[in-house]
Write a structure and sequence with these properties.
- The chain is an all-alpha fold.
- Helix content is 68%, strand content 2%.
- It has helices spanning 6-22, 24-45, 63-70, 84-106, 111-138, 145-161, 165-183, 195-203, 207-216, 220-231, 235-248, 258-262, 276-296, 305-315; strands at 54-56, 59-61.
- Strand 1 (54-56) and strand 2 (59-61) form a beta hairpin.
- The two termini are 31 Å apart.
């Protein structure tokens, strides 16, 4: 059954007890929201496990059939190929995010609840990201069929139980990457080479990230995707600013000048670190732009930094 884990349940109960003392009417709203979430989890669990075997009109459908299907189609076409339980489970993840987001809004000024609530919401976001990276890996010719089968199996585990060892291992890396970006000072732009921003982020990351930087930062796509992530600008915008700096004989650009250099607001918008949804929005914007470049063979990164990083980590296993 899809439900909150022990740590999440304890957090919700602690928050309910606090709200019950200082704001009973808000406790009613919270109780209602989490009852709905529990009911949705129970409803999703009524669908048969995707590991179960059944026969329909002479066609055997089981885990092996799903593995084969996952390895045979491109990621953009996966929606109508996945079992109903999977699509419903994704809805549960969104509802879970919204429920904890409600708590976050109600208690954003209470420091003791800030980080635990943010952790739950980021886990949901990174779970959705990891699922998309799995699909991208299944469509990547650089991965062997054996690796793809293992990834498809992990994806099935994620869908069936809500987690898998590989996802748990790599989600912590995404959490650390975003935490380091959030903790670093805003980008100073300057010469637009991202060296200072990269240094500040790298100082807060583990050895796995440092190994990744040493191994991949000299590769154009990785460097371009990293610059997008650090500056919050698209590859096209960064290239345009650099060209204008060269044309005008300038060595640096200030933060307040970015909009005038671009002739408007940046394509990716402002990332509000207090709203976890903006993290996912920023990822989706970069992902969709990267896919467009790939389809049209345009210059620039064809994958996001998160995708490149997770694929690197998976390939090292």
């Amino acid at each position: 059954m899809l439900e909150l884990n022990g740590e999440e349940t304890a957090l919700v109960e602690k928050i309910k007890a606090y709200l019950n003392e200082c704001s009973p009417e808000e406790t009613v709203l919270v109780n209602q929201r989490f009852r709905c979430l529990a009911a949705l989890g129970e409803a999703v669990s009524q669908y048969p496990s995707i590991r179960e075997s059944n026969k329909l009109r002479g066609i055997q459908r089981d885990e092996g059939h799903l593995l084969s299907t996952l390895c045979s189609f491109a990621s953009p076409t996966h929606l109508l190929h996945i079992p109903a339980r999977v699509a419903a489970a994704r809805s549960y993840q969104v509802a879970k995010f919204q429920a904890f987001s409600l708590l976050y809004i109600l208690l954003r000024d209470k420091k003791e609840f800030y980080q635990p609530l943010r952790k739950v919401m980021l886990t949901v976001i990174h779970t959705l990201m990891a699922e998309e990276v799995y699909f991208s890996c299944l469509d990547d010719p650089d991965f062997s069929q054996i690796v793809k089968i293992n990834l498809a199996y992990d994806l099935i585990s994620l869908w069936d139980s809500g987690n898998d060892p590989r996802a748990v291992q790599h989600l912590s890396a995404l959490d650390a990457l975003w935490s380091a970006r959030d903790a670093a000072p805003p980008p100073c732009f300057g010469t637009m080479n991202a060296s200072s921003e990269l240094m500040r982020v790298t100082m807060d990351m583990d050895e796995g990230w440092q190994e990744f930087i040493i191994a991949r930062v000299s590769i154009d796509e990785t460097r371009w995707a990293l610059e997008e992530f650090l500056f919050g600008l698209s590859y096209e915008e960064i290239t345009s600013i650099r060209l204008k700096l060269a044309e005008q004989g300038e060595n640096a650009v200030g933060r307040q000048e970015i909009d005038s250099y671009l002739g408007g607001k940046p394509a990716y918008g402002i990332i509000d670190s207090t709203d976890c949804r903006s993290i996912y929005d920023f990822y989706v914007d970069r992902r969709d732009t990267a896919r467009f470049r790939k389809r049209t063979s345009a210059p620039g990164p064809h994958r996001t930094l998160e995708e490149i990083y997770l694929k690197y980590r998976i390939a090292q296993e």
